[in-house]
Design goal:
The chain has 78 residues and is mainly α. Helix content is 79%, strand content 0%.
Length: 78
């Protein structure tokens, strides 16, 4: 595993540990983009070495991404 790969993994783990309370729409958009980019970068690393730990991180980040995007879309009007 390269230094760049471990750096990406560290950034992903740091993002995962952060509190995910976003007050404004802009904060939600920024978080959504950041987590999306992290997942894509991790996917590139995963393609190279097929490490199951990386897949687990991607799955957890995807759950966070879905929650953020659900909050972005808001509740449908009934």
């Amino acid at each position: 595993m390269e230094v760049k790969d471990t750096e990406i993994i560290d950034r992903a783990l740091e993002f995962e540990k952060r509190k995910h309370v976003y007050k404004s729409t802009n904060e939600k958009i920024v978080a959504s983009r950041e987590v999306k980019n992290l997942i894509l970068e991790l996917n590139e690393v995963y393609k190279e070495n097929k490490d199951s730990e990386i897949m687990d991180i991607m799955k957890r980040l995807t759950i966070i991404k879905r929650k953020v995007e659900k909050r972005l879309k808001g509740r449908p009007n009934a």
